[in-house]
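Probable alpha-L-glutamate ligase (Maricaulis virginensis), 471 aa
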Amino acid sequence: MAGAFMLGWEEWAAFPKLNIPAVKAKVDTGARTSALHAVSVEPFGPLESPQVRFVLHPIPDKPEIEVVCSAPAVDRREVISSNGERELRWVIETPVRMGDREWPVELTLTNRETMMYRMLLGRQAIREDMMVNPTLSYCQGELSYDLYKDFPKRRPVKRPLRIAILTREPNNYSSQRLKDSAETRGHVVEMINTARCTLAIDASDPDVYYDGKPLPHYDAVIPRIGASMTSYGMAVLRQFSMMGAYCLNIPEAIGASRDKLYAHQVLARAGIQMPVTAFAHSPKDTANLISHVRGAPLVVKLLQSTQGRGVVLAETRKAAESVIDAFRGLDANFIVQEFVKEADGADIRCFVVGGKVVASMMRQAESGEFRSNLHRGGSAKRVRITKEERASAVQAAKALGLSVAGVDMLRSSTGPKILEVNSSPGLEGVERTSGKDVAGMIVEYIEGHVRQVPPRRAGKRRSRTAEEVAE
């Protein structure tokens, strides 16, 4: 097309009306809608013409630089992301400038904290006289993050925070360590039993009720949601996010990590190495499943397994057929996975906080056992991980969108292979083995991501603690 406005697969963009001088955008014609990174999204104003206030961190590795934006809301709609997750997002319309051209675009607001690009330009925003060349970058020139040098830098929050730990096990080691670490730093921590929460879904004033009474605003929520409460726990977490709380791990990322089959697909799409995995619905495909993972020995895993339960090693083909048939007879969902013999019953747990491996340990299965879980009698010791293992752990957490994760991997003859990514990793084993204050690092990370000023809530009701609500 003669005279077409050319875009590469990545471009620099500016938003004059939002006071955003430079942000990197991924141009994706496979995506219908455009999206902009936003946290602490807060609607305000009359219901018939609402405004939206939000915070943008334009530089991925510098969360201390933030821009507070506001714009009229034009819609609130459900968006299905590339990984199939549904999310209700606020939509704004504002001019975008690329090169010497400026035009209005609709943007959905969503947390893209774990994404490399703070903006996604979808096909709806690409005009008829524009062309996209997926082999080129920055066709409209390059800007620079130096444009933010005069922007005020936000320091980690020094004021006391009100933090909720969403858990049904308030007395376990991890919950208590997080509580103690936060209180040592001057914050107020309340344990919230997920099962006792009720949601009042309202566009102007969403609420979470505890035993029938409204909970107060929380600056941050630490989700410690058990596997049996995943679906409801994610709904509760979404509600807290709608109320303006910073969620340590977003619900969509927790859901992705809990679905073992989907998690493996996400990791494979990101090019992350893992044991070869197979899945089939038809009972006629047993032979194919076994051949896909290069034969016996192999591992059969229930998709809902935790702490090593529902994981079986089949050492021969006949044993594999028997286990697979038995699981099918129970109408259970399971995957079949390659057995990495050279790992010799050991795996490595890397604890990732904010895109960095802060602690690690090696777990060794007891004699005669291949599962190294500490809950199954395995032992733990310090380990020095390689640069490749560190990068794999960080990449796996990022692919699933988790700010805090326990990444389990095997040492194979071809390099590290990711087994699983846990969105609520326990602290006891890794803290005692490594000697690191992981709980303190998590609280410090939260301090660096919570807004300086909590969002205003509708109404004048007095804040109540979870203990007061329960009385």
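Residues 5-148 form a domain with the Cathepsin D, subunit A; domain 1 fold (CATH 2.40.70.10). Residues 51 and 72 are 4 Å apart (CA to CA). ok done for today
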